[in-house]
Sequence to fold (180 residues):
Amino acid sequence: MAGEPGNEAPNARSDDLAARLLAVSELHGDFVLSSGRRSSVYFDKFRFLADPALLREVAGRVRELLPAGVTHLAAPEGAATLLLAAVALETGLPMIVVRKEAKAYGTRTQVEGYPEPGAVVALIEDVSTTGHQVGRAAKAVEAHGCTVACIILALDRGGADQLRAAGYEVEAVVSVSSAE
Fold:
């Protein structure tokens, strides 16, 4: 779990938040993950993203993990944009939504919002098992001329390792290991 070593109060708060986030979102059964893998454990992100009090706490913890110098917040399109909006309200930082691909109409861009080249971006993801979706979003942000300062995962179930291997700085509100 992320936290500052030797700083008892934040760790205690993080442990409590982690316990509550896991209690709400961890499901057991037979599930197919977005990666196509099967798992007996599934973390239902909507169970913490749809709870205003818990969402506010997770957003506050994400805010604490942001490195200095970040000018924009980003998330892959989808449920992570709920957390993105909550963190933006906490920080006042502008948002970027990264589409899976550019649309053939409208602005025809994959990176939506107002990021100027040179913007320093923190990418936010709700749950990550492989890091694939947020990694793809990071590459799109970089192709837009921005710098990805870090990737922050609300719940890391293994994706952080792949993202770090790809050269990204990664933090997580909660990390769980998969025995599968």
User: Anything to note?
Assistant: Confidence is low (pLDDT under 50) at residues 1-12. Residues 45-175 form a domain with the Rossmann fold fold (CATH 3.40.50.2020). The helical segments are 8-25, 46-49, 52-65, 80-91, 132-143, 159-165. The chain is about 35% helix and 30% strand.
